[in-house]
Design goal:
globular
Amino acid sequence: YDETAWHVHTAWSKPIQDATLLLQFAALAAVCWRSYRSGAGDLVRWSAAAVVAFVFASKVLSPQFMLWILPLVALIEDRFGGFGRMIFLPCCAATSLVFPWCFLHLVHRALFAVVLVNVRNGLLLMLLILLLFYPDRERTAPDNSLAPNRALDSV
């Protein structure tokens, strides 16, 4: 059964398609390994990394998959989150340019459309690398200076 979708095939399509399941498994295993090694403290970061790994290494990268990543990248805090958003925003822009405006050019393998898709894929790879290998944040104890004084509770 073939979905009612447009397929763009090249000489590289079959070997890459055969390798995607292995690549997806390896990417998700890398996320699990890095999450475990870091203590799995940053749930948003590792959730974003898992979704980006899944989307990047899948056979189909549909434009709506960017919506899966968007809320997770938006929730990443600090300077690290800013780097992630600076990579993700052009990724979304490239996806929006390809679908729907440049898709027919992509079907006909116009160079600029192929380059645009590859730039988008490269940006996703950069985001995944950032999520996997950006140094872990220092965990600090919460500031309890504003917490109510427990000694007064017994009075």
